[in-house]
UniProtKB/TrEMBL annotation:
Boundaries of every Reverse transcriptase domain copy: 25-292
A Pfam family reported for this protein in Swiss-Prot or TrEMBL: RVT_1
Gene3D superfamilies in UniProt: 3.30.70.270
Annotated signal sequence range: none
InterPro entries recorded: DNA/RNA_pol_sf (IPR043502), Rev_trsase/Diguanyl_cyclase (IPR043128), RT_dom (IPR000477)
Organism: Meganyctiphanes norvegica
Protein name in the entry: Reverse transcriptase domain-containing protein
Length: 602
């Protein structure tokens, strides 16, 4: 049955009762459906011209099997929760668990190593397993389930479904069956929980026999996010001890360390250690996508990488959008929905100084100028207003506050405890930046507890809008814009035509008119009609040479004794925006032709 059929079945009470009864019967049945033991492996190419190594195998399993195993998964997860068997330092495959929590804890440990009364050595070992999912010893996995007192019926079902399972792979016209004897089943909804329980066994042994890193009343031997783990210790000797325990217990469950990919960094190393158990000591390591340095400022390299990547992708903007049917829409989507989420991961944790944030803002301003084809003197407030973009700093503020909110509302007691310690620590850089941000937007820390996430976002947005209004007020050139543009909102009126460029530059008051010549001590008069200064109002309303190019009905509709208000009505009239764009394009082209004629005759 297809997923669509199951969705329809789910709408019927009778069908739901029938399926429930079928699944209940399956719990105690001796023989499992043949289809439940079969998976189909599809090879997805990672690149355009793949070699054998460039295919990613994806396993597809029966829908009813997935539903059944989801029920089993929920039962096991409830058992772990009710009996307080969850290991708080395994964030992966856990409800509400995020990789940011691991990075947050690491930041706390590193800073405390430097700010304690006596500097402490901190050894971190990033652990890489070779083919973690495929290597799990199934017998040992079942033993782990028994040790965790999972219901015998559930264990029995897992054994039966893992016995004699196989996958089919199609190569062109040929199909081959491969029997599977090791590893956790790919494409199964229960697999993440099974893998997590295996890591619990490793964590349990580290807690029992390991030598943890202690700060105040917190002791940690390891942090896990799925199979990405990191060991910690107070000395090189303790690190060796913990690594040997991890290696031994992991091997027992079929997991083997890939020592070439394991890395070590040491903080406050007084012995100039080069390697531990054959694993090289580095200046920085990559953990969960974040580069961590062996200095107190542990994210310096990561911040520099973010800036360089921002510049790189910003420079690619024109090439990405130039062939697009609607380069404005494509450009905004490319930058706001693809690049920014990639660049700004983990900014809820990583501390950027004001200059670094300002540099990122400058890069983003350049992107928006390219997208809208704005001139170099285009005010940032106008770019933001037309694109519908918040300040870069606003994103940092929101991310920091929502990070705290997520920890507070989360179920992980370890992360909550660390947050409480961070809040007490006046030297902690994350804590100090949160306090600065709270003060900026007029909030206090208790409001993070009491307000909903949407209310926090609205407070940050209100601050951002206020900054936007203040910026508009500073510029005399944006007088018309600030009267008619009342909110930061993406405009849907721009496309690839010259008319759109002229509309944007007119709204920004950056059209290349002769008014700007006065800054160069040149004559700013209108070369078409001879008026003393060619400015925006003169171009839109007054120049008699452009009279025939104007849409008389539109001009009449927008007529006002105050010429600034009249100009604003012309530029911001939403109902007839296409007619306005056509008129502006016609006027600009006529002006260009007349100037070319004048220059030829000189």
């Amino acid at each position: 049955l297809t997923p669509e059929i199951f969705k329809e079945i789910g709408k019927s009470e009778i069908c739901l009762k029938t399926i429930t009864q079928c699944f209940n019967n399956e719990i105690t049945s001796k023989n499992k459906p043949k289809e439940w033991k079969e998976s189909r492996t599809k090879l997805i190419p990672k690149k355009k011209k793949p070699t054998v190594k460039d295919f990613r195998p994806i396993s597809l399993t029966n829908i009813s099997y997935k539903l059944f195993m989801s029920i089993i998964k929920d039962e096991i997860e409830n058992h772990l929760k009710i009996n307080h068997l969850i290991k708080e330092n395994q964030m992966g495959f856990t409800k509400g668990g995020r990789k940011e929590d691991n990075i947050f804890i690491l930041q706390y440990l590193v800073e405390k190593a430097f700010t304690s009364k006596k500097k402490k050595t901190l050894v971190l070992i990033t652990v890489d397993y070779s083919k973690a999912y495929d290597s799990i010893d199934r017998e040992k996995m079942i033993e782990a389930l028994i040790e965790y007192k999972i219901h015998p019926h559930i264990i029995d079902n897992i054994i039966k479904l893992y016995s004699g399972d196989y996958t089919k792979i199609r190569f062109g016209e040929q199909e081959k069956r491969i029997d599977i004897t090791s590893g956790i089943k790919q494409g199964c909804t229960l697999s993440t929980t099974l893998f997590k329980i295996v890591t619990y066994m490793i964590i349990k042994e580290l807690e029992k026999r390991g030598r943890g890193y202690q700060i105040d009343d917190i002791t940690l031997e390891s942090l896990f996010f799925a199979d990405d783990s990191i060991l910690m210790a107070e000395s090189v000797e303790n690190a060796k001890h913990n690594l040997n325990i991890l290696t031994e217990v992991s091997k027992k469950y079929g997991l083997n360390l890939n020592r070439e990919k394991c890395k070590i960094i040491i903080y406050n190393d007084t012995e100039n250690t080069k390697e531990i158990e054959g694993i090289k000591v580095e200046e920085n390591v990559k953990y969960l996508g974040v580069t961590i340095d062996n200095k107190k400022d542990l994210f310096k390299t990561q911040r520099e990488m973010i800036r360089k990547n921002a510049e790189k992708y910003a420079n690619m903007t024109h090439g990405i959008i130039c062939r697009s049917v609607n380069k404005i829409l494509m450009g905004k989507t490319y930058w706001k929905c693809v690049i920014l989420p990639s660049l700004l991961q983990n900014i809820g944790i990583i501390k950027f100084n004001q200059k670094e944030i300002s540099d990122l803002q400058t890069i983003e301003n350049g992107v928006y100028r390219k997208i809208l084809e704005g001139r170099n003197n285009t005010p940032i407030s106008v770019l933001r207003g037309e694109i519908g973009s918040s300040l870069m700093e606003t994103r940092f503020i929101e991310s920091k506050l929502l990070m705290a909110k997520s920890i507070i509302e989360g179920e992980n007691e370890l992360t909550k405890k660390i947050l409480a310690k961070v809040r007490e620590d006046r030297k902690n850089t994350w804590n100090n930046q949160v306090n600065t941000y709270l003060q900026k937007i007029g909030m206090n820390y208790n409001e993070i507890y009491t307000l909903k996430k949407i209310e926090i976002k609205n407070k940050v947005k209100k601050w951002d809008t206020q900054k936007w209004r203040e910026e508009l007020e500073k510029r005399t050139s944006t007088h018309i814009y600030r009267i008619f543009k009342t909110e930061i909102k993406e405009e849907q009126c721009y496309d690839n035509r010259l008319e759109s460029i002229i509309l944007f530059q007119a709204r920004a008051n950056t059209l290349e008119l002769n008014k700007r010549k006065r800054y160069k001590q040149e004559d700013p008069k209108c070369e078409l009609c001879g008026y003393k200064e060619e400015n925006l109002i003169h171009f839109l309303i007054e120049c008699k040479e452009l009279e025939e190019s104007r849409n008389k009905e539109l001009i009449k509709k927008c007529k006002d004794e105050n010429k600034e208000l009249m100009a604003g009505k012309i530029l911001f009239e939403k109902e007839e925006i296409e007619e306005i764009k056509c008129m502006l394009g016609k006027m600009w082209r006529y002006r260009k032709r007349k100037l070319e004629e004048i220059n030829r005759n000189i």
